[in-house]
Amino acid sequence: MKYDRILIRYGEMTTKGKNRNVFVRRLKQNIARKLRAFPRIQIEYMRDRMYILLNGEPHEPIIDKLKTVFGIHSFSLAMKCENDLAAIKETALAAVRQLPHNGKTFKVSARRVNKQFPYRSDELNHEIGAHILRQTDGLTVNVREPDIDVRVEVRQDGTYVTCRDIFGAGGLPVGTSGKAMLMLSGGIDSPVAGYLAMKRGLEIEAVHFFSPPYTSERAKQKVIDLVRKLTVYGGTIKLHIVPFTEVQQAIYQGVPNEYSLISTRRAMLAITDALRRRHRALAIVTGESLGQVASQTLESMYVINEVTNTPVLRPLISMDKMEIIEMAKRIDTHDISILPYEDCCTIFTPRAPKTKPKKEKVLQYERELDLAPLLEKAVNETETMVIDEENGRTDEFAGLF
Amino acid sequence: MIYLDNSATTKPFPEAIDSFVAVASGYFANPSSLHGLGMKAERLLAQAREQVAAMLRVKPGEIVFTSGGTEANNLAIKGVAWQYRQRGRHIITTEIEHPSVAEPCRQLEELGFEVTYLPVDRDGRVSAKQVERALRDDTILVSVMHVNNEVGTVQPIEEIGALLARYPKTLFHVDRVQGISKVPLDLQRAGVDLCTISAHKFHGLRGAGALYVREGVRLMPLLAGGGQEMRLRSGTENVAAIVAMAKALRLAMERYERDIGRLKELKDKWLEALAAVPDIAINTPRDGAAPHIINFSLKPSLKPEVFVHELEKSGVYVSTTSACSSKKKAPSKTLLAMGLGEDRAERGIRISLSFDNTQEEIAPAVAAIRQAIKTLSEVTG
User: Fold this and answer.
1) Which end of chain B lies in a sparser environment, N or C, as judged by fewer CB atoms within 10 Å?
2) How would you classify residue A280: left for phi > 0, otherwise alpha for psi between -120 and 50, otherwise beta?
């Protein structure tokens, strides 16, 4: 007897009332897409849980993939059998035997959801526990802190046995909270912000500002690689690459040095907001954390944010740099982020940017500059690419590998 | 031609050669160059790294490309020795390693390191128990090959890895040059810290190999310079051979999935046919051996070099033990270690198969072997 299914427990979705179905269906879709490489699996879902029937597909790679799907609280390898005491005992024994159990402790936690079943939970605990104890070596009972908790659920459609819970990624299924634009620089913070936004169920489209020849193709490729890492969690993601050279040059020439950074940021936000409107998103996500650099003081944020009243979500706002780095490492974006290519933020950075910019001054400089046509041009010439977990590779090389 | 010397080198896949030519002619730029051409070469390298890592089920950042198996073995052994020499100066390996492991160990002995060479049993195998007994406080490295290149014995890598999991200060290197794409090994589960592969043993081209370096393991580089390969192996990368290796590895793994049953069957048929040949003795153990290597010894009075040449006249290509040492007249180190005696160890012949060999080859090849033995017996005596 082998584990033939994976039981999935939902995360916070269980608190959703009428929308529950939307969430569950979306989760099923996201899981199905994630497990495309395993054509034999079947996904069954109900109000409070989901089952992946393995049908002979290997469970280890599937488990690895499930860990990256938002909306899953935890999951377990499970076996199903008929509601028959002898069958349940054998199944529970088989489930334990497939784990390393020598020298370990265990307990049985039976639950009788189906009250028609003739044995009460404590009777089941006793019967199953005694059977396992007799049929194994080196396994002892510990009801308080067992190494292996053999969970047996007698339901209407059959009995399910699981032994080990694996934590899922938590959060909400990507796509159930709507769509937002992610401002993606290539640094350490913005991919983490994108990850957290997706964790709360947002679908994201990434926006990157590209300033050739000041920034190289490598910097662009770096951003593509980062988006590809995010697709592990978010499925297919659109990346908008904004040609930003002219805007940056105009600001550099027309705005006093200490204000150029603020104006550049405002231009980026304005362009992102225009793209947001085009692509029907409702928010903008940034990797800003309070007080990290000159543009992220509260005064600067106030002046930058002035260009739009679209919600600007800042998932990292209260995080320390060390926490952000740690999370970047965990989601595997850190090593790409630290590659030393210039991005558009570092190129025109003034020596001493204003940390307490005045709104009136910025507005005055920008009025004289008339940036609007340049911003519009940048929006219109934005190049969009669709990046998937599997692609994101250079097609030109297809035959070489 | 019946080519039975695949453990010396394999015939490159035509697809691997195509990739090599396409990359060498179309993407010849230096991957470190700033311009677009350089970037393309860099992308190729990155993609090759991802593919090799995926095939080995490790992270791309854990793959260091080298010029081949010898360099990877040297980097692993000397790299660990130099990096961790303050921690200890004792190394454990076996008596049957390939020279590219054994010789670096000898060099280190000259430089003040101590090396324990574990003996093997009749089947050519070491045990985790032996490793455990040899372990000391100052043991910094254990290096054990996966599949022996001369007789094909598979070493208990998982058991040794499980043992060494309890000794975090002792690193574990595995020379997997003969094992890759023939005998499965899960590097992470087996607790392997360093692992060597070489392209030309799985139908890639010479000039490319790789060392798996588990995240967190540090090595002193052998080649200092421009800092390529995460500073572990300086020198402009051989992009064409590396891309060809990535492709060959994918194809070889596909062949494994499809044809491993057939290869095992083929080896059994070979053993059956050879069992009926008089005057030879099979050295490869019955159990726990790789599916592609068969070693046997000729009867005394027959010279293995002469036998190889005689067989070549019929278009059948085999080796005297390992090709690397077959130009020297010396008894096989592995056969000696197995306790088969000097005489038998001097007369070892190795047949090594690939997924391209067929059962139809067995009859004519065995007939040629019989004929060669007969001819030489008449000449000598």
Assistant:
1) C
2) left
With H, G, I as helix, E, B as strand and everything else as coil, classify residue A193: helix
Catalytic residue among B324, B362, B366, B367: B324
Which residue of chain B has the CA closest to A399? Answer: B19
Tell me: the pLDDT tens digits for A233-276?
998 999 999 999 999 999 988 898 888 889 999 999 999 999 99
A16 falls in which pLDDT band (50, 70, 90)? low
Do the Cβ atoms of B243 and A399 come within 8 Å? no
- Mark yes or no for CB contact A216/B39 under 8 Å: yes
CB distance A149 to A106 below 8 Å: yes
CA-atom Rg of chain A in angstroms: 27
Which residues, 6 or more positions from B286, have their beta carbon under 8 angstroms from its beta carbon? none
Say how many C-beta atoms besides its own lie within 10 A of residue B278's C-beta: 8
Q: Given A218, A335, A393, which is nearest B47 (Cβ)?
A: A393
Interface predicted TM-score (ipTM) over 0.85:
no
CA dist B257 and A209 (Å) reads 45
Section B134-152 average pLDDT: 97
Question: Which tokens belong to A367?
Answer: 């009025």
Tell me the C-alpha distance between A251 and A159, whole Å: 68
Distance from CA of A224 to the nearest CA of B (A): 12
The token pair at A80 is 């199903």
CA atoms within 13 A on the CB side of A139: 24
Give the SS3 label for residue B309.
helix
pLDDT, mean over chain A: 90
Question: Do residue A401 and residue B48 have CB atoms under 8 angstroms apart?
Answer: yes
Inform me whether the pLDDT recorded for B322 exceeds 60.
no
Q: Which long-range contacts (CB under 8 A, 24 or more apart) does B56-61 make?
A: B56/B187, B56/B195, B56/B197, B56/B212, B57/B186, B57/B187, B57/B188, B58/B187, B58/B188, B58/B212, B58/B214, B59/B215, B61/A335, B61/B215, B61/B230
Mind listing the pLDDT tens digit for each residue in A124-136? 999 999 999 999 9
Please tell me the distance from the alpha carbon of residue B161 to that of residue B173, in angstroms, as a whole number.
10
- Dihedral sign for Cα atoms in the order A143, A145, A147, A153: positive
pLDDT at A384 over 60: yes
Residues of chain B in contact with residue A221, where contact means CB-CB under 8 angstroms, are 39, 43
Three-state SS for A10? strand
A221 contacts B43? CB cut-off 8 A: yes
- Looking at chain A, the whole-number percentage of residues with pLDDT higher than 90 is 67
Regarding predicted confidence, which is higher, B146 or A294? B146
Q: What is the pTM of this model?
A: 0.80
- Check CB contact under 8 Å for B47 and A401: yes
Read off the pLDDT band of B327 (50, 70, 90): low
Tokens of B41: 């070469």
CA dist B262 and B298 (Å) reads: 28
pLDDT digits (tens, 9 = 90+) for A265-277: 999 999 999 999 9
pLDDT at B248 over 90: yes
- Name the residue among B39, B44, B47 with its Cβ closest to that of A217: B39
**Half-sphere exposure for B101 (CA within 13 Å, toward CB):** 29
B→A contacts (Cβ < 8 Å), by residue, are 18-19, 22-23, 34, 36, 39-40, 42-44, 47-48, 51, 61, 243, 246-247, 250
